[in-house]
Structures are given as structure tokens and as C-alpha cells.
From TrEMBL:
It holds the Pfam family Aminotran_1_2. Gene3D superfamilies: Type I PLP-dependent aspartate aminotransferase-like (Major domain), Winged helix-like DNA-binding domain superfamily/Winged helix DNA-binding domain. This is PLP-dependent aminotransferase family protein. It comes from Pseudonocardia charpentierae. Keywords: Aminotransferase, DNA-binding, Pyridoxal phosphate, Transcription, Transcription regulation, Transferase.
Length: 471
């Protein structure tokens, strides 16, 4: 209620006009108007002029006030939606979804903003980052690193990390790769960007993409010029018959824990997908090994690259096991793809920063990484159970999907429900959730994606209670 009133006040405040932007339309640049406006709105969110829950003026209204075309405002809102700062829905308004982190000095000068309970997926529990173990790993790695290793390194990454990953991926994911066959990248995001470039160079314009599938990855691939052909996903993962019918060559999949539905690719579908890949030239499975390490009630499923390495490009990172801030990931690819990928990596940034790689290698080889995973797995299981219990109590009759693994689950909504509208009402009530429609390429059944890794059981229960009230 309190949050709703704060939101309503913000609506009034913002609805009056573009004052919150503190922009002088006369200072608008001749080119790059959308970037100019995006930066201004982002600043307003960052320094608290626009609190979470505030509603932005309609695109037509703001365009009129600033004297720019409506397309400029639409583009700016879209960019900020992609950044996770705004939420928009067709026919409805656009609201501030999150306040972005601010430097402490700025934070201290502005009135505190009540942060809603944030159940949006995408982050591990950052408070669980093993700071002491990481510090020890950094010290040990630095003490052992000779001066010459501080120069420009191998574009594939340090040998230390590639060797540690070769052992780790073999043991935990069944991927048999020599250190020379692994490329260290700045997270899955860079891995996918490089793969998109390799595909484009091969003349690929259209790729298969899970529907629903990660909105962030989809936006990224589209910005690299790929057209995504939607391939439906159900509780057993990607529909391989539908994939075959599309006629595409490469396909991007999240087989270990489908994002966002949470399903694991069923054994018969795994076989069918690999048969599909083997059946014709130009077919390639790009395996985003998302959330593979977080399993609770079932034995781990080996990566697809463990079974058919010549047809699979395997991509992973420590963003969901340690922290996205490390920007450390890896690609294991068939030789021809790998060679092109390494060239592109070199042309992009020469190589991934070495010190973080060396610390991660130390953390893995010392056993600290595995100890950390065991610790967070137990905590995450408790949180998942708390969330499940709360959903059963407060949202009886809803179907829950994807509970066996990962850091989020999916709550199905009744047919015809508008999940974006539910998410907006929930936000006004103080709990941020993600509508499944955000990740859809084509319309489909509605749902809410709820992340639980970063929220304590009490806050999870409170969040679901607020969500139920909003529904
Ligand atoms: C589907 C998917 N894969 C991978 C990642 C991790 O990306 P990165 O390793 O670049 O942090 C994300 C991030 O949220 C994601 O949504």
C-alpha cells in the first residue's frame, strides 16, 4: 500500500511533464537523439529522481514536450527496458522497474528509496560470494605469476585457467576438452557475440531460437544481425520436430535448465537434437550451459557437448555460480568454429584480463570453487522450497515449472491472463517479478518467472503474499 502510494505520487510528479529529465530541448544533438534521451532517463533513475514504480509519460506526450519524433522516445524506452530499468507493455504505460546502483556519495545525498522485494531472475546470491577464498586465490596466483605473464597473453586465455577448466568441465559436465580446445571469454555474453560474428561470416542470417527464450540473449543476437526463428519449448525442452520444420542451420539452446521455463531437455529430445545436427551440413547446436551446476532433486545431466563435440558449441560462465562481475566464461567448439572464434576474440580485446583468470584457476584447483558450490546449493534448495511452499499457500491451483534445478522457477497463470499487467500490479504492491511474455517471440500461455537465489526465505514468503494480493 505504502509502495502504491509512493508510486502514485511519482506518477503525478512525472506525469506533469519532462521536468524530471532536467533536459533543455535546445541542447538536443543533431544526431543520436535516442542515445541522448536514453542517457537522460537513465541518469534520472540512477540519481533517484525517478524511483522504482514511477510511471513515465506516454511516448507521444514526452516527444511533444521535447520536440522530438515519437520514434526517438520509443527507442529510448526500449533500450532502457532491455537494460532492465523500465518495464513496458503493449497498450499500457512504461514504469521504472529498478533503481540502478548508485555511488555511495550520491546515495547518501538523496532520500532513501524503498526497494521492492526483487524476485526477478538472473542473479545468484551476491552476498554469498566467497570473498575470503577469492582473496586467498588472488594472493596465491599473484605470488606465483612471473613478470612475463603480465604482458599480452594468448587470445584463448591463460593456460592455468584453461587447464583448470578442462578438468572441471570433464568432471562436472562430461565435456572432454584439452586445454588447447578451450577459449576463455568475458562471460557467455561475449561467447555468443563472437559466435554470432563467426556465423555471420559464414553467411548465416537466420538461426533457431527457443521460444520462450532469454530476452537478453535474443536482443544481443539480433543486434549482431541475426534473425531468430522461434522454436517452441515445452516442459521437455526444445521441440526438435518443430526445429527440423524451420529449415534453419544453427540453433541456440539452454538444455541443462531452459531459460526461462526451467525445464531440462528430455533424453529423447537430446537424442533427436543431436541426430538433427548430424543429419546435414551447416547444422550446429549452440549450447548455453545455463544454470547447469545448480541441481537439487536430480542427477546432473551431461552437457550435449559431452556426447557430440563435433556438432556442439558449448558456452558457460561463472556468472551464476560466483558473480557476473567477474566476466569470466568459456567456449568449447569444434575446431573450425574455434579457430575463427579465437581470431575474433583477438581482434576484439586481445584476450580476457589475466589476473581474474589466474585467481579463478586457483579457486578451482584448490577445491574452493566446489566448496562454494556445495554451500550455496544447500542454501538455494532451502530458498526454492520456501518459495514453492509460499506459492502453494498463497497461489493455490497454479502450476509451477522448472523446480529441479537452477535459480528460478516458472509459475503458470490462467489462460488469457495478462502477465505483464500482473507484474506491474505486483511491482506497485512492492514485489518485482518477470512476466513470461517478456521472453516470448510469439504469443503463448502467460506466466511469471520468479528468481529465488538472492532472497531470504522470509522475504520470499512476503513477496509471494504481496504477489497474491496483486493478482
Ligand atoms: C540465458 C542466459 N545465458 C547466460 C547468461 C550469463 O551471461 P554472462 O555469462 O555473460 O554473465 C545469462 C545472463 O543472465 C542468461 O540469461
Amino acid at each position: 500500500m505504502e509502495q502504491g502510494q509512493a508510486g502514485a505520487a511519482a506518477v503525478d510528479q512525472v506525469g506533469r511533464g519532462a521536468d524530471f529529465l532536467q533536459l533543455d530541448p535546445a541542447s538536443a544533438p543533431a544526431h543520436g537523439l535516442a542515445g541522448w534521451l536514453t542517457a537522460a532517463v537513465r541518469d534520472a533513475i540512477t540519481d533517484g529522481r525517478l524511483p522504482a514504480g514511477a510511471r513515465l509519460p506516454a511516448t507521444r506526450v514526452l516527444a511533444g514536450q521535447l520536440g522530438v519524433s515519437r520514434g526517438v522516445v520509443v527507442e529510448a524506452y526500449q533500450r532502457l527496458t532491455d537494460e532492465g530499468l523500465l518495464s513496458g507493455r503493449r497498450g499500457g504505460g512504461t514504469g521504472v522497474l529498478a533503481t540502478s546502483p548508485r555511488p555511495a556519495a550520491v546515495r547518501a545525498e538523496t532520500a532513501p528509496v524503498r526497494v521492492p522485494i526483487d524476485l526477478r531472475p538472473g542473479l545468484p546470491d551476491l552476498s554469498a560470494f566467497p570473498r575470503q577464498a577469492w582473496l586467498r586465490a588472488e594472493r596465491a596466483a599473484l605470488a606465483r605469476t612471473p613478470d612475463h605473464a603480465l604482458g599480452y597473453g594468448d587470445p584463448r586465455g591463460t593456460l592455468e585457467l584453461r587447464a583448470a577448466l578442462a578438468t572441471w568441465l570433464g568432471r562436472s559436465r562430461g565435456v572432454r576438452a584439452d586445454p588447447t580446445e578451450i577459449v576463455v571469454v568475458n562471460g557467455v555474453a561475449q561467447g555468443l557475440a563472437l559466435i554470432a560474428q563467426v556465423l555471420a561470416r559464414r553467411g548465416v542470417t537466420t538461426v533457431g531460437y527457443e521460444d520462450p527464450g532469454s530476452r537478453g540473449t535474443r536482443d544481443q543476437l539480433e543486434r549482431w544481425g541475426l534473425t531468430l526463428e522461434p522454436v517452441p519449448v515445452d516442459d521437455r525442452g526444445l521441440d526438435v520436430d518443430a526445429l527440423t520444420a524451420t529449415g534453419v542451420g544453427p540453433v541456440f539452446v539452454t538444455p541443462a535448465h531452459q531459460y526461462p521455463t526451467g525445464g531440462v531437455l528430455a533424453p529423447e529430445r537430446r537424442r533427436a537434437l543431436l541426430e538433427w545436427a548430424r543429419a546435414a551440413d551447416g547444422r550446429l547446436v549452440i549450447e548455453d550451459d545455463y544454470d547447469a551446476e545448480h541441481r537439487y532433486d536430480r542427477a546432473p545431466v551431461a552437457a550435449l557437448a559431452a556426447v557430440a563435440p563435433e556438432h556442439v558449441v558449448h558456452v558457460g560462465s561463472v556468472s551464476k555460480t560466483l558473480a557476473p562481475a567477474l566476466r569470466l566464461g568459456w567456449v568449447v567448439a569444434p575446431r573450425d568454429v574455434r579457430e575463427e572464434l579465437v581470431a575474433r576474440k583477438q581482434w576484439s580485446d586481445i584476450t580476457t584480463p589475466a589476473l581474474g583468470q589466474l585467481a579463478l584457476a586457483e579457486l578451482i584447483t584448490s577445491g574452493g570453487f566446489e566448496r562454494h558450490l556445495r554451500k550455496v546449493r544447500a542454501r538455494q534448495r532451502d530458498r526454492r522450497d520456501a518459495l514453492l511452499d509460499a506459492v502453494r499457500l498463497h497461489l493455490p491451483g497454479t502450476r509451477v515449472h522448472g523446480v529441479a534445478a537452477g535459480l528460478h522457477l516458472l509459475v503458470g497463470l490462467p489462460d488469457g491472463a495478462d502477465d505483464a499487467a500482473v507484474a506491474e500490479r505486483a511491482l506497485a504492491a512492492g514485489v518485482a517479478v518477470q512476466p513470461l511474455s517478456h521472453h516470448r517471440l510469439r504469443p503463448g500461455p502467460p506466466g511469471l518467472v520468479l528468481g529465488y537465489a538472492a532472497t531470504t526465505p522470509d522475504r520470499l514468503r512476503e513477496g509471494v503474499r504481496l504477489l497474491a494480493d496483486a493478482m
